[in-house]
Amino acid sequence: MSLLQIENLHKNFGDLEILKGIDMTMNAGDVVSIIGASGSGKTTLLRCVNLLEEFSDGRILIDGETIGYHEQSGKRTRRGEKEIARQRAMTGMAFQQFNLFPHMSALKNVTLGLIKVKGLEKDAAVSIAEKWLDRVGMLNRRDHFPGQLSGGQQQRVAIARAIAMNPKLMLFDEVTSALDPELVNEVLNVITDLARDGMTMLLVTHEMRFAYEVSNRIIFMGGGNIIEQGPPKDVFHNPKSPQLADFLKNSKF
User: Fold this and answer.
1) What is the pLDDT of residue 102?
2) Which residues pair with 60 in a beta bridge?
């Protein structure tokens, strides 16, 4: 069974159709990078998977469970908020902006969800938080506040916070786009290490070389559709569509 299954996914904002029938699957351990021009629907797709956006039609299943809606006799009914919160916890998400709580230390930013959402005792939450802060190279900054950290350090704390919740699927949305160029590699190296450990990841990125090296599949989106997908070597070295060929010609790959 696929860990993630997306079937005929549509998303409208008023009369504007952002996603036009997306179909894709991911297995456990897959690392899939979504590339494409700005406005192609990449971030909206991730936000639908994480239920941060309601989708207009179609189905999303994580580990065989239909996400966001009940389906009965062809009719969709939105699940209750408690159930949606539980389903949202099946995925972790790291954003372009780090979204850390500025009045909390790095350690408290990571332990908050473990205590409030997972219901762990403080000592257990601290143990897990320290493990993941160490994993992303931030344990020595555990007592620092976000304002005392660089952008790359803040993003690494944000990644630790998401992974500490033990999601089935990790989503990364352009996590280096707000960083100064010299800080990009420290975050990409963390993600690369997680990929080597077998974490299932769906990434939206404009870092073409990174996508080529870390992914086992590339999805190229344009105009709300998946135009092309396949192994990195095929997608980057043998594009079949003129849209992808033009995109790669203008990219930094």
Assistant:
1) 96
2) 6
Report residue 200: phi and psi, to 5°: -80, 125
Residue 73's pLDDT is 80
Q: What is the pLDDT of residue 182?
A: 86
Give burial (CB, 10 Å; 0-12/13-18/19+) of 16: exposed
Count of beta carbons in the 10 Å neighbourhood of residue 70: 12
**pLDDT per residue over 49-89, tens digit each?**
999 999 999 999 999 999 999 888 878 899 999 999 999 99
Helix 181-196 and helix 151-164: axis angle, to 10°?
20
The first and second tokens of residue 227, run together, are 């135009």
In 38-160 the beta strands, taken as DSSP E runs, fall at: 57-62, 65-66, 69-72, 75-78, 91-94
